[in-house]
């Protein structure tokens, strides 16, 4: 459905990713796991088409373009939470980005946004300014915006950061359900155990792919060591 082939990304002399080939399928919930600076966010940005220069290819299946199908939830701290918009407006952005220029949201769009806010548990906060929310509430709003867009490819960069344990479980169940409904879900996380419980597939990455497969097959001491001791970066 979506993938990269031979992807190499450099920031000046720094190699962020080297010759990465991965394919993400509909109905699959994948966790991207690796240490800080492993290139996980860079990989997600490449998949969105936001990355400027790279070697290799980003591929979409025919009929699926990034423009119409993709939902990207960046790391919470990379966003401007002082921007003067409400929870409702933010979720509606997921809809308007889908509609395109010159088309105004109608009753159906408002219903979709209301449903997304209810599903993520922030409907009652819809009139609140986004700057007045807690970290967990902000994350729920970002997921509501993602749901409102109704895309098929969901890319999430550390969606559980700053979220309490109960909320984390709710959000993971929500993402699992998205995959079960036929969407491709790709999530960057640092939580190995949570990924094991909820995801079909784990990709261990440290500038290159160290291991890729079902959680039990991937979580070997050798793979974990190669990923987190830096062996992956130069090996
Ligand atoms: N815009 C940029 N300019 C220069 N270097 C960058 C840029 N973006 C990322 N890097 C570098 O590329 C490497 C990979 O960064 P990236 O953010 O993709 O890693 P990550 O695995 O998502 O890390 P983290 O878990 O800390 O979010 C890091 O060494 C980072 O410093």
Automatic annotation (TrEMBL):
CDD domains: ABC_Metallic_Cations. Pfam families: ABC_tran (PF00005). InterPro entries: AAA+_ATPase, ABC_transporter-like_ATP-bd, ABC_transporter-like_CS, Metal_Ion_Import_ABC, P-loop_NTPase. Residues 2-231 form the ABC transporter domain. Transmembrane segments: none annotated. GO terms for molecular function: ATP binding; ATP hydrolysis activity. Keywords: ATP-binding, Nucleotide-binding, Transport. The keyword Nucleotide-binding applies. The keyword ATP-binding applies. Coiled coil: none annotated. SUPFAM superfamilies: P-loop containing nucleoside triphosphate hydrolases. It comes from the Bacteria. Belongs to the ABC transporter superfamily. This is Manganese ABC transporter ATP-binding protein.
């Amino acid at each position: 459905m979506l993938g990269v082939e031979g992807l190499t990304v450099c920031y000046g002399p720094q190699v962020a990713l080297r010759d990465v080939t991965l394919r993400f399928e509909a109905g699959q919930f994948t966790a991207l796991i690796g240490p800080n600076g492993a290139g996980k966010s860079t990989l997600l940005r490449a998949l969105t088409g936001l990355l400027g220069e790279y070697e290799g290819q980003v591929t979409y299946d025919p009929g699926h373009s990034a423009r119409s199908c993709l939902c990207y939830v960046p790391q919470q701290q990379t966003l401007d939470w002082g921007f003067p918009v409400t929870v409702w407006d933010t979720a509606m952005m997921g809809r308007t980005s889908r509609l395109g220029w010159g088309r105004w949201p109608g009753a159906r769009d408002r219903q979709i946004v209301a449903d997304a806010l209810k599903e993520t548990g922030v409907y009652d906060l819809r009139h609140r300014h986004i700057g007045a929310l807690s970290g967990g509430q902000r994350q729920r709003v970002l997921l509501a915006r993602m749901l409102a867009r109704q895309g098929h490819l969901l890319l999430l960069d550390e969606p559980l950061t700053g979220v309490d344990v109960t909320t984390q479980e709710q959000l993971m169940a929500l993402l699992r359900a998205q995959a079960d409904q036929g969407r491709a879900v790709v999530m960057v996380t640092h939580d190995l155990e949570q990924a094991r419980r909820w995801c079909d597939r784990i990709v261990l990455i440290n500038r290159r792919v160290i291991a890729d497969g079902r959680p039990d097959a991937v979580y070997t001491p050798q793979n974990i060591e190669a990923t987190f001791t830096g062996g992956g970066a130069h090996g």
